[in-house]
Design brief:
By secondary structure, the chain is α/β, with parallel strands linked by helices. It has one domain (12-264): 3-Layer(aba) Sandwich (Rossmann fold). The chain is built from 9 helices and 12 strands. It has a 6-stranded mixed sheet, with helices on both faces. The protein has a 4-stranded antiparallel sheet with strand order 2-1-4-5, covered by helices on one side. A two-stranded antiparallel sheet has the order 11-12. A hairpin with a 2-residue loop joins strand 9 and strand 10 (225-230). The chain is globular.
């Protein structure tokens, strides 16, 4: 299925983006644009390229020339510090090799603003404290990051990204391995950032119901290609999901918020 026409006002854009770890491409000729203030979910089966796509548009993985753009400028033309100020990357892995305190993790979001020999100042601590208040982790500020729960770790990582004050936040499956309480907490925090601060969010997600409930736009991948994209109501259709996921599904609509619940049926 075709994607939307590219526009010059894109905040982030890919043009015929292809990427391979070895010989076989895992991302194939993807052309997308992401507007400022969008809350976008990238969905698709395991191995469809969700995490790789986010790493490419965030500059975590190198892309070919003239394939990834940020604010109409090729990503590779930015200095690393410029990208660190503008784009926050929140990976799945949240275990730290060293026993940092939560406040230290959150202050890492301020590093792009510091010179090599300088230390965090009063303003950096104020910004970090505000970020911890937003994500409700201020009470953990002086605890070891590796001693808190998975949901608390995810909120700390989001606080670190907030303190970075980026234009775009990229999150790789931010609710994976969390129970439903923490999933809703995390996604509500992200929705508030999107609605109150117009923060641009791009998330790789597995849970189609939560993607429908929180994301304003979905990009559905299959075998490294964009199969379709648009509002959840246009993407989460029975015939589309059955073709992509290769399983029979039933789709129900939540009467309260109109979100869609996708239930596997019998093959």
């Amino acid at each position: 299925m075709s994607t939307k026409t590219q526009t010059s006002s894109s905040l982030m854009e890919t043009r015929n983006l292809t990427f391979a770890y070895g010989v076989e491409p895992v991302i194939r000729e993807i052309s997308l644009n992401f507007q400022a203030g969008e809350f976008t979910g990238v969905i698709g089966p395991n191995g469809s390229g969700k995490s790789t796509l986010l790493k490419l548009i965030g500059g975590i993985l190198p892309s070919s020339p003239e394939t990834v753009f940020f604010k109409n400028r090729e990503l590779s033309h930015y200095r690393k510090k410029e990208l660190a100020v503008s784009i926050a990357w929140i990976p799945q892995e949240k275990q730290m090799a060293f026993s940092f305190k939560v406040i230290d993790i959150v202050l890492m979001g301020r590093h792009p603003y510091l010179s090599p020999l300088s230390f965090e100042g009063e303003n950096d601590y104020r910004i970090a404290e505000d970020a911890m208040k937003q994500t409700q982790v201020l009470e953990f500020a002086h605890r070891s990051f590796n001693e808190i729960s998975g949901g608390e770790k995810q909120r700390v990582m989001i606080a670190s990204a907030i303190s970075q004050k980026p234009e775009v936040m990229l999150l790789d499956e931010p609710t994976s391995a969390l129970d439903i309480k923490y999933q809703i907490e995390i996604l509500n925090i992200l929705r508030q950032l999107n609605e109150r601060e117009n923060k641009s969010l791009i998330l790789a997600m597995h849970d189609l119901h939560l993607a429908s409930k929180f994301c304003k736009r979905l990009v559905l991948l299959k075998e490294g290609r964009v199969f379709c994209e648009g509002p959840p109501s246009e993407v989460l259709k029975k015939e589309i999901l059955e073709e992509v996921y290769e399983v029979k599904v039933k789709i129900f609509q939540d009467d309260e918020d109109g979100s869609l619940l996708v239930v596997p049926g019998q093959s």
